[in-house]
């Protein structure tokens, strides 16, 4: 088990280096000049050149990359070229709201998705199953921004039940809790569908398996058969899917955070890219990809917990 | 569903509903203003963004203020001033009752420090040039400042009214260093810095000492205890937030929503008619095809600006019938009369006469050269539709306009190149002289003079206007430049972008101002009903 975890951890290192390399050079490929962006539309060439010098943008690219990696190894992600704030500080203040939002989304979306999928599989072919599947298809198909704006329209504007302009405080405060409801429904909404569909097909497979028939033959109650014998075995592919979906959730968070003015890392990334703030953009890329890698690592480990056969493989 | 679960759900829903009744940010004596973008920093000399100006104007004061008509200079920190006959020495008498947010009285040395910091080339500020050819700025006593120029500079008083020339506290700048305007700020504005959470909220509170507001307001003291500037990047959310009373004011309402919002009971919509923010298309006058004046003129005549104002700005923008905005100081009505009117038939005739004959594909040709050109612009809310409308208009007279719009990330870089033939832009300005000097002086190539307009006569006239010591000379020279540029069709002026201030039902006394995009300027006269 430990060996399995260590192997996965070691494999994450070259992936992270690849991300760094790609992140750095992709930002360089964009035909933009941060000095021009910072100087504004009315600046003369002399002013732009002075800013370029100040930012060290005239150094050769390879040199810039190695300076960057060297600093990174010391935990220094640089400072924003726009407002001079250390990147780590900005990341520190924005990661919390994003994690809160993801937690608030997953905490209801995963159980609901699994429950919907299990019920759908158990009542396969019935009206209830069709309703559940229709809802999950809708969940998969509705774009995040559309769901967000629709919620704002009904819950925020028509009935004025919930606030939707930012994050007044952490989610364990009353104001913060109210503010996270709509973004969490929006972000979680796109999550429920895939989880429900995967759970349904997986449970369906397992319900037809020999061990389930045996369990029934033993006279176990249906609830025990489904929850203990079918669902647990059906969860292995669902866990993999959840891991992958959390990666997409990070993408969805960028849109959700924009629609609801949620001050998370997604909005930071968009802002940094739009203002050509290279250190900040690279910092957000590192954190987002690190998140993705860690989630996949956790999925790998969890996989081994759920399925003992994986451990030896 | 079990009874217990049912009761729990009902109780939860009720708690949410009751708890969220004041979910609106409208609480107490705090005014919430919504905007769509944050600035990079709030150091007056470090950011050219209008999103910075709208905050800095409330945190800090300038020597003089600009009236709602955008033409009249009124006293602010300077209670009076004299200008020497040669136009090179400005002497300002300062008010003696002004205090910084930290309570320290403002003296002449603060003004000297701030203005030197702004104008000194060593500060590498993108706005230093606005201070003119400074020889020296000095204090002769605690309340007198002398601003000496190497040569006269007609625009100085207006430039001194812009947020870039704000008076700030030296100690605060030195203490915070690069973080001045990022982590804190001390100045003499009606409101004081409380906190800034980038891309989220900027919070300011009333300056308790403030009683020197400019006379353009009825009450020189701020009435609102706190102002929260909240960034809502998504315009639909912003619209819903205003209607759901989660905020009190905004001047970033999408044009499409203005009529709808004005019908909502309690909402007030006001237009600042003198708002100066114009959209235009400029030509690179040394590029093939568009170097021909006939082409440029024909483009001007074939573009249906009324239709653009109606379709793209939902009737909320004013079609530009002149090079510069009619509200601006030194606007020349005569050159406006020289601007060719919308007349596609006459445009086609003009091209015929200039030798541009229709080819087999309907596109005109002359000496083997097709009448085609490429326009660049930023992919913003209006450029895609403006460019498509113009493309259709020009196609009718046999000109093929190729459109290339760029994301803001790369757009400004692209607009600094020589790759294109024409470009779209919109900009704020305060005087005709400022706009003309900025965009048409030969020394301003390649940016912001992206037209590559290098003309000796223009340079001479602008030098005359800029160094004029009397109004008539300045006005005359600026008028001559406007006529010359109108005649040469260097720009296709498109639409004057309007400013609409939307306020909620508990706001009273708010009036749109709009200098350099600052819709609420000093934020005075505003009171909250509850």
Shape of chain B: globular
Secondary-structure content class of chain B? alpha+beta
Quaternary state, please? heterodimer
Domain module count of chain B? 2
- Class of the largest domain in chain B in CATH? Alpha Beta
The CATH homologous superfamily of the largest domain in chain A: MetI-like
Q: Major β-sheet of chain A, in short?
A: none
In terms of DSSP E residues, the strand content of chain A is: under 5%
Largest sheet of chain B: 7 strands, mixed
Q: What radius of gyration of chain A results from the CA coordinates?
A: 24 Å
- Global shape of chain A: globular
Domain count of chain A: the total is 2
> Which spans of chain B have pLDDT < 50 for at least 5 consecutive residues?
1-25
In the predicted model, the low-confidence regions of chain A spanning at least 5 consecutive residues are: none
How large a portion of the residues of chain B is in β-strands, by DSSP E?
Answer: 15-25%
CATH superfamily grouping of the largest domain in chain B: Periplasmic binding protein-like II
List the helices and strands and how they pair.
The complex is a heterodimer of chains A (313) and B (530).
Chain A: H1 2-29, H2 34-39, H3 45-55, H4 61-73, H5 87-122, H6 127-141, H7 144-158, H8 174-207, H9 210-217, H10 222-259, H11 265-274, H12 278-306, H13 308-312
Helix pairs in contact in A: 1-12, 5-6, 5-8, 5-10, 5-12, 6-8, 7-8, 7-10, 8-10, 9-10, 10-11, 10-12, 11-12
Chain B: H1 3-19, E1 30-35, H2 50-59, E2 64-66, E3 73-75, E4 78-83, E5 89-94, H3 108-119, E6 134-141, E7 144-149, H4 156-159, H5 170-176, E8 191-197, E9 201-206, E10 226-231, H6 235-243, E11 249-250, H7 258-262, E12 268-272, E13 277-283, H8 293-302, H9 305-311, E14 318-319, H10 333-338, H11 344-353, E15 357-358, E16 364-366, E17 369-370, E18 372-378, H12 383-396, E19 400-406, H13 408-414, E20 422-428, H14 432-440, H15 456-467, H16 471-487, E21 491-496, E22 499-503, E23 507-508, E24 527-528
Parallel strand pairs in B: 1-10, 1-11, 18-19, 18-20
Antiparallel strand pairs in B: 2-3, 4-5, 5-7, 6-7, 8-9, 9-10, 11-22, 12-22, 13-20, 13-21, 14-21, 15-16, 16-17, 23-24
Helix pairs in contact in B: 8-11, 14-15, 15-16
Subcellular location (chain A): Cell membrane
GO biological process, one term (chain A): transmembrane transport
Protein name (chain A): Peptide/nickel transport system permease protein
